[in-house]
Amino acid sequence: MIKELSLALGTFADSFIGINIFVPGEPFYLAAGYQLYHHNVFAVFMALLGGWLGDQLSYWVGFRYGQRAQRFLCRLRPKLRRKVALCRVVMDKKGNWAILFARVLGPVAWFMPFLAGNMRVSWLRFTVLSTAGLLLGGGQFIILGYIVSSQLIHSSWFSALDVFHH
């Protein structure tokens, strides 16, 4: 249970606004792939659940406090207004694609849930698109972790080290 909880906390930290800049989620999704190779499906579920909960909480923080934070930052740095306006245009024209592929686009994923909440994207729309994005973005690393684990376990030089002895 500790493994699964640590995966959930790691992926939550990767997706929650503020701390997500300092915590990369890829190692946790790779570890979930390793666990999947060893038939621990619950670990994958917990890793995805942590990422999903972090996205949801970031959305609600943006929904509740985003306007206030935006006004503060625009007063502090007036040039930021143009970027905020550009972000609004992108969300209006290509918002579905932006939310869906944010997880695959690296640093965009750090801010997308917060921005979606700030820009009052409907919760249902955000949830559906970000969940699909999480399955794409997190899923690619889970699959990679699974493949690497299967190759490491069966390679002769790695087996000689007896690192992954069960």
TrEMBL record:
Species assigned in the record: Marinomonas spartinae
Compartment list: Cell membrane
Stretches that traverse the bilayer: 42-62, 97-117, 123-148
Lineage: Bacteria, Pseudomonadati, Pseudomonadota, Gammaproteobacteria, Oceanospirillales
Presence of the UniProt keyword Transmembrane in the record: yes
Principal location class: membrane
Keywords: Cell membrane, Membrane, Transmembrane, Transmembrane helix
Stated name of the protein: VTT domain-containing protein
Cross-referenced InterPro entries: DedA-like (IPR032818), VTT_dom (IPR032816)
